[in-house]
Write a structure and sequence with these properties.
Elements lengths: L1 H18 L13 E13 L4 E3 L6 E4 L5 E4 L6 H14 L9 H4 L4 E3 L2 E12 L3 E10 L3 E3 L1 H23 L7 E9 L4 E12 L6 E15 L4 E12 L2 E16 L2 E14 L4 E11 L4 E11 L7 E3 L7 E3 L13 E9 L4 E12 L1
Antiparallel strand pairs: 1-6, 1-20, 2-19, 3-4, 5-8, 6-7, 7-10, 9-12, 10-11, 11-14, 12-13, 13-16, 14-15, 15-20, 16-19, 17-18
Length: 360
């Protein structure tokens, strides 16, 4: 009897265990679909190296004094800055202009990190694999780097002192010289549309780690950064102000509107029940993110009366003129959309999010 009771006890225990629900909340066999809403952050890392383009060469002309000069489109960069600093190196060596060349010839902007929200829809195949489509909105505006901002401000600040020093060396002790900068940082965003295949590393239990890989498209939208510099100088000769010239330059940074990307990563799901749970994943989105730097320049020489011609006693010379017999040095052609730098390399966006999913 004792042996029978023991055997019966084992039989009853086995029956209870067989009737109990499983310890892990697994999806029902018919629950093939998963929808998820998530949020987190995105941390971009764009390329900084690249290729700088040569500035267009200014046209050389011979002044009425027999020296050489150039017709430049701007004093802020290229041949214009070289000419001005060559003249000031002789006449006002303590008042040199800081050119924009280093800003224009480098990666001037990068994407900021920012919040990310998104939606995923997945279809399960078998017990381990799923195909998934994701759409993520990330607030990652393209902004000037601090190095670029410092370079722009240094060029702006040195413009007024450079021309004040030049004019005080001879033609006028009371010149008017000023420069302003209007800097607008980007306020755009990125839209990441990706498709991946996920593989669960284990198939039983509430806690399911997984890996994933796939591809997609990164779309960059919204305003891009720009900086407009306006330099002006005028001076009085014999009580009048015939010389009045304005130098306008705009620096712009833009990235590609759409780029193909690859996606790699992993994470885990925790099933609160067979129907819903939470999910955390980290992804590296590789590709795109390249930027171009552009510059526009529009010089302006105001007509004056009487006609005045000023030629610096240097070779090469800086020329300031209101007479048709000789052009001013700041009389080169306007420049529009000149690309000065293109980044090369690979952008990597690190995306970490957490969300709630529902199976059906």
């Amino acid at each position: 009897m004792r042996r029978f009771r023991v055997a019966a006890g084992y039989v009853c225990a086995a029956a209870v265990l067989a009737a109990a629900p499983p310890a892990a909340a697994q999806p029902a066999a018919g629950d093939k679909w998963l929808i998820e809403i998530h949020g987190g952050g995105l941390w971009p890392s764009g390329p900084t190296g690249g290729d700088a383009a040569a500035f267009p060469a200014a046209t050389t002309f011979t002044t009425l004094a027999g020296s050489q000069s150039r017709r430049v489109s701007s004093w802020f960069f290229g041949d214009g800055a070289t000419l001005l600093n060559s003249v000031n190196g002789v006449l006002a060596p303590s008042a040199l202009l800081t050119p924009l060349d280093k800003v224009l010839g480098a990666s001037a902007a990068t994407h900021d990190s920012g919040p990310d929200v998104g939606l995923r829809v997945a279809r399960r195949f078998g017990s381990r694999y799923s195909a998934e489509l994701s759409v993520d909105y990330a607030r990652t505006p393209l902004k000037f780097t601090q190095k670029a901002l410092d370079g722009i401000d240094a060029s702006r600040a040195s413009f007024a002192s450079a021309f004040a020093g030049l004019f005080r060396s001879g033609p006028s002790q009371t010149p008017n010289a000023s420069a302003t900068a209007d800097i607008k940082n980007g306020s755009g965003h990125e839209l990441l549309t990706t498709g991946v295949l996920t593989a669960d590393l284990i198939t039983h239990g509430r806690f399911i780690p997984f890996v994933l890989g796939g591809a997609g498209v990164a779309s960059s939208r919204g305003p891009k950064p720009s900086a407009s510099l306006v330099g002006n100088y005028s001076l009085s000769i014999f009580g009048i102000i015939p010389i009045n010239e304005t130098d306008r330059v705009t620096l712009r940074v833009a990235d590609r509107a759409r780029s193909a990307v690859g996606v790699f990563g992993g994470g885990f799901r925790y099933a609160a029940s067979p129907r819903w749970g939470v999910r955390v994943d980290a992804r590296a989105t590789v590709g795109g993110g390249k930027t171009n730097v552009f510059v526009d320049a529009s010089p302006s020489v105001a007509p004056g009366s009487p006609a005045i011609l000023l030629i610096s006693p240097t070779n090469p010379s800086a020329v300031f003129s209101t007479t048709p017999i000789s052009p001013s040095s700041l009389s080169g052609p306007a420049i529009s959309g000149l690309r000065t730098f293109t980044t090369s390399g690979t952008s990597i966006r690190t995306n970490i999010v957490a969300g709630v999913y529902l199976r059906f």
